[in-house]
């Protein structure tokens, strides 16, 4: 198979990350700034802005030497850990181009792009796409594509114009590159230059034994050349994907007993809880899968409202769900698997000294139990929705998918009823004037005489959601002669041109 | 009965009321009892509110915007029938972290017998969570509740700024069975942080006198 490896080099990552963190990146890069690290003998320069490079500062040099050349240099602390984290995140993000991505040294990524390029036009288009997308993030990138990782690495760094290179021209393209393109250590590079071998092509006629004495075994330049030319393998190790936490129970003889699932569950939950504990995770969504002998699957799923790994709680939820739904054994089940589909970080925490669950955990466990038995859509928490229309503003969200950061919505107006009818109910009214407040209304065949009233509070229709014929509402808080308090509204006003005489509705009840 | 012989009644939020109280609403179209119950629920703790499907149809759904600070911690359960509602109430009463459990049932369901109420009462006392069993359109049959109330709305106080508007709410509360205090009948108003009887027996008195008393 013809492999295609892409090396993506970010030459100025450190300084560009620092500049992007400031308010004005372009202005920051125009200042003579150097990023420094604590070295053994004072501050070492880690990265420099172009302006500082013009004044003689070089990465790897000492800050004092650079200051001697130009006292006006500004020094900032470098953030190496932050760069590494950024690069790891960028490697995950680069999986948009290829499933095999690897962090390659301090400022580079390596991608296996075999059979990928046609999705982006061709290999040139792929390289342009990579460079453009990194440029949009404010990071310079140089990409090169070659049949081997070593060759791609050298081309990305030392080729004048990196371009996709194929097998037949590989040796010819690598030959004029400086010897550093072989990715040897600085000591080995220095040694080779002293020997007069300044370009990759110079190594071609050198006997292997002559060099073997001068270089350590894993630093042999000819081995590096062989790797670059594809004569020696150099495998990629892609970023490991965390496998989902899973417990498996194979069964020797297929079981047809309906109780088998519950028994399997009791044996699956403890190992899964242990795995979650070692990986410091908490489950939010679990699936118990039964593999039947005829190749079909039976499934039972549960969700939890906060990440948890308490074995008894998980067991109780799953067994409750099994009782409700059950798994049909069919012709027999020969394996069970309990897998976590959605998990979150959960560090060890101690609720109380004596181990009884308190507060949040206990309430979350209660919500989970209720949701398993009654269904997740029946156990809900109020969610604020940004709307003036009362029935729309009173949103509800399922208790098991509580949002840790609810959207910031303006507080609802005060003096709202404690009960809201799901649909406003029309009432017959008797009023003195059609614009004013009625004297009495008939709701569910009972007459209520209005003794006191407060209002109106006018709520206009949301024209961006509703039809053009939607009418405004005038809400009144009224109290009848017996002291019952209602929230009634008139839909529309007389002569608004959106229908006939306005109707009255009861919408809520006050305490 | 003269007013000074009335038994004292002081109700405050979350003050040692970890018992099962049964409450009969005057009518399902009267939500006055919600204010009476919410004033006694411990604030800043999760409140489990269980409504049977029929109770939602007849008396409306809980409206979070009208509950004030209690809304942030509200957990609302819509139960298919009385059996599911009672199961959810009992499940909630096993969780001591709750501030209160309110369950609304419609009529006199089969599932609600003496055993069921007794179980609720024991669970409430064991975990220390106040439980309110609200009966809409129900009849006061045999029950294991420690306190039984009958509640209706009463004409509200005079509004301080608008004489025509309903003011702070008042309720006509009748305690007809209790192990802790003498039964009686009061007109209760909200005097933060307590609920207090604000007038003696609402009997044959005209409405105008109430407003004069408070004005």
UniProtKB/TrEMBL annotation, chain A:
Residues 31-153 form the UmuC domain. Signal peptide: none annotated. SUPFAM superfamilies: DNA/RNA polymerases (SSF56672). Keywords: DNA damage. Residues 394-415 are annotated as: Disordered. It comes from the Bacteria. This is DNA polymerase Y family protein.
UniProtKB/TrEMBL annotation, chain B:
It comes from the Bacteria. This is Protein ImuA. InterPro entries: P-loop_NTPase.
